[in-house]
Amino acid sequence: PALTVSIGAQHFAIPRAAIEEIVRASGDSVELAKVGGAGMVTIRGRRVPEIVLADVLGLDSPLSDAERTLIVLKPAGGDVYALAVDRVHDHEELVVKPAAPAVMATGIYAGTTLADDGSPILLF
Asked: Would the pTM of this model clear 0.85, i.e. be above it?
């Protein structure tokens, strides 16, 4: 089970087991801030680092910080952080396969799958 998200026209998948909650960056309970050049977000009094997926991957995003959606993630054995994405699409049951060795060597992706239209989706 995974949640599909996008940055511009590029789609990605996030395992549902790692997702704690999904909030709009412009929501009443959300405060965005920069601390030492790094993004931080406070959600209902809980402060976590913010990672903007478009920045990490070097993709162009048409949205401002306040227009994005934040996905609060806690990967297995990892720390909690908020991942900023352009759009959240849907929960799907995906068949994940290993990606090319060069892609897997980045340490960012867990595998790949195909969308209904045949386009590839990378899984974080």
From this structure: no
Of 32, 51, 52, whose CA–CA distance to 42 is shortest?
32
Helix, strand, coil abundance in the chain, percent, nearest 5: 10, 50, 40
Nearest residue to 11 via CA among 97, 83, 88 = 88
> What per-residue confidence (pLDDT) applies to 105?
82
Q: Which residues contact 41 (CB under 8 A, 6 or more apart)?
A: 25, 30, 31, 32, 33, 47, 48, 49, 50, 70, 82
Sheet with 30-35, edge to edge strand ranges = 19-24, 69-73, 81-85, 46-52, 38-43, 30-35
The tens digit of pLDDT for each residue in 73-108 reads: 998 778 899 999 999 998 878 888 888 888 878 877
**Cα 28 from Cα 26, distance rounded (Å):** 7
**What three-state secondary structure class fits 107?**
coil
